[in-house]
Amino acid sequence: MKKAIMFMFALVLTLGLSSTVMAVGDGTGIVGSAHDFTDGVSPRGGAVASPDAWNTSGELCRVCHVPHDHGVAGQRYLNGLLWNRDVSTETYTMYNNTWSASIDNDQLTQPGGISKLCLSCHDGSVAIDRFDTYTGGGSSMTMENIYGGALDALMIPDGAVGALDMRGTHPLSIRFDNTVDVLLNDPNATAMGTSGNIIDVLDLDQRVQCSSCHDVHNQESAPGTNFLRVQQDIPGNPSALCRTCHIK
Ligand code: HEC
Ligand code: HEC
Ligand code: HEC
Ligand code: HEC
Questions:
Q1: Fewer beta carbons within 10 angstroms: which end of the chain, N or C?
Q2: Residue 165 has pLDDT above 50, yes or no
Q3: What is the pLDDT of residue 10?
Q4: Side-chain-side CA neighbours of residue 64 (13 Å)
Q5: Rounded to whole angstroms, how far apart are CA atoms 129 and 96?
Q6: How far is the CA of 215 from the centre of ligand 3 (A)?
């Protein structure tokens, strides 16, 4: 009964949204989301003709994962999760304890884990069509250029490739041990969003990664957000995403 009510609620919510602006994240799955590269639709670069024509595989998952590597482009699978893309070779200036003395938790010297996977498109250094057997179209096919500049704002970090400065992005690949920083909630006892997943499961190594805040498959993202796991402008509960982790 509860489930049926939830379903009706989700349906009403979905219908309500589709009659206004298509949300980038609406929690209904990857199909039709910004990460669906088969539908020829770009929520941001919509005016560009056939925006997903570069995905000659015609497949949804293959742009990021592949079931068998077939020896293509040397051991991409070592990045985990059957990864099917070249990852970035950039060196980043990190938001770390050299930059901010109040950082307490242990941090990797460069982004690692899942953040590395997101950056394989979002840092703008690797052609988006460089996956599977495709060698990619070079700089004209990077995040910055692929839809005629329409995706400039989606570059993380924002700025020129070659000196990628992460000091303007939330600290990455940093542990969230609340015994080290007592102003953090307990990652083993705090749920992230409505999924019921505790903060701790969002990365294998108890580290904050892009996936701590974003849901790449749009299954648990809050409606109307940038694939965010928790909505930020809830009346009476503002910046709820930040306050899921931070006691502030
Ligand atoms: C295959 C390359 C690729 C990978 C890998 C990838 N993205 Fe994306 N992402 C894109 C593209 C391209 C868009 C914009 C699509 C469009 O507008 O048509 C996008 C859109 C987004 C958006 C929505 C932005 C908006 O319009 O509000 C977010 C947030 C995002 N990605 C985060 C992530 C995160 C976090 C990861 C890793 C967990 C990730 N992406 C992995 C290519 C990628
Ligand atoms: C834009 C790139 C992208 C696309 C497209 C994509 N994934 Fe993923 N996938 C990721 C990233 C990044 C992660 C790690 C982050 C996470 O787990 O949330 C991941 C994690 C996973 C995982 C392991 C963790 C989990 O959520 O269970 C599975 C399974 C998975 N993907 C399956 C799929 C399938 C099946 C498809 C196609 C229907 C797909 N993915 C499409 C990027 C992508
Ligand atoms: C601590 C939470 C957090 C982490 C970690 C995080 N993001 Fe975000 N991200 C946000 C929020 C919140 C927004 C909503 C827009 C804003 O507030 O600037 C956002 C927006 C975005 C957007 C939309 C463009 C924009 O600036 O509006 C993209 C793309 C994106 N993030 C990708 C990433 C990638 C890739 C990573 C990892 C390298 C990452 N994010 C790590 C919280 C996070
Ligand atoms: C998934 C958990 C998580 C989320 C969500 C999150 N943070 Fe953090 N944040 C952390 C951790 C862990 C640290 C590192 C704390 C430490 O060890 O000092 C951190 C560090 C920071 C710092 C750096 C503090 C310093 O000492 O320099 C700022 C600022 C910050 N977060 C703000 C935010 C804001 C704003 C949001 C919401 C957009 C947010 N955080 C969301 C976990 C999170």
A1: N
A2: yes
A3: 44
A4: 19
A5: 32
A6: 11
